Amino acid sequence: MSKVIGTKYLNEKTGLVVIGATGREASQVIKESESLYPGIVKAGVTPGKGGSDELPCPIFNTLGEAKAKLGDAINTALVYVPGNSVADAVMECIGHGIAVIYIVTEHVPIRDTVKFYAYAKQKGVTIVGPTSLGCCVPGIGRIGAIGGKDPSAAFRQGSLALISKSGGLTTTTAEMFMRRGWGIHTALAVGGDVISCQTYADILPEFEANPQIKGVVILGEPGGSYEEQAAELVKAGKFTKPLVAYIAGRFQEDMPDSVSFGHAGAIVERGMGKASDKIKALQSAGKNVRVADYYHNLIKGMEELGVPRDFEDSSSDHVKPKYSTLK
Question: Which CATH superfamily is domain 8-130 in?
Answer without folding.
Answer: NAD(P)-binding Rossmann-like Domain (3.40.50.720)
